[in-house]
C-alpha cells in the first residue's frame, strides 16, 4: 500500500510539473521529480529516496533531494526537517543521475512555472 501511494505521488509530480516551457536557462527541460519522504522513520525514508532516485533516472528527470524528517521523542507530533546533505554527500549521487537540493535558489525562480 505504501509503495502504491508513493508511486502515485511520484507519478503525479512527474506528469503535472512540466517546466520545459520556462525561459530560464538553468531549468532542466526534461523536468523534475519531487517527493516527500514523510512516511516512517529514517530507514523507510531512505528506501523511498532510493525508489525515487531510480524513478527519476528511468524518466530522465532531475530528482529534487528532499529534507529528511526526524521525529523528536519529547513531543509525539514534533518533527524537524534536516537538509539532505547533512547526512549524505551529493557529489557521488551526481555520478549516477541528476539531483538538486530543494534548498537551491532555482526553487524561487520556478514558483510561477510550477503553479501555472
UniProtKB/TrEMBL annotation:
GO annotation, biological process: fucose metabolic process; Notch signaling pathway
Segment forming the signal sequence: 1-22
GO MF entries: peptide-O-fucosyltransferase activity
Annotated localization: Endoplasmic reticulum
Substrates-to-products reaction catalysed: L-threonyl-[protein] + GDP-beta-L-fucose = 3-O-(alpha-L-fucosyl)-L-threonyl-[protein] + GDP + H(+); L-seryl-[protein] + GDP-beta-L-fucose = 3-O-(alpha-L-fucosyl)-L-seryl-[protein] + GDP + H(+)
Tree of life domain: Eukaryota
Name of the protein in its database record: GDP-fucose protein O-fucosyltransferase 1
Species of provenance: Bugula neritina
High-level lineage: Eukaryota, Metazoa, Spiralia, Lophotrochozoa, Bryozoa
Amino acid at each position: 500500500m505504501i509503495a502504491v501511494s508513493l508511486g502515485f505521488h511520484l507519478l503525479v509530480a512527474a506528469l503535472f510539473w512540466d517546466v520545459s516551457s520556462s525561459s530560464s536557462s538553468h531549468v532542466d527541460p526534461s523536468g523534475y521529480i519531487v517527493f516527500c519522504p514523510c512516511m516512517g522513520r529514517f530507514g523507510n525514508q531512505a528506501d523511498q529516496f532510493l525508489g525515487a532516485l531510480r524513478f527519476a533516472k528511468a524518466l530522465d528527470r532531475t530528482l529534487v533531494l528532499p529534507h529528511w524528517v526526524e521525529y523528536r521523542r519529547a513531543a509525539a507530533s514534533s518533527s524537524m526537517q534536516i537538509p539532505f546533505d547533512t547526512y549524505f554527500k551529493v557529489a557521488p549521487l551526481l555520478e549516477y543521475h541528476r539531483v538538486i537540493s530543494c534548498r537551491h535558489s532555482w526553487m524561487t525562480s520556478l514558483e510561477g512555472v510550477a503553479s501555472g
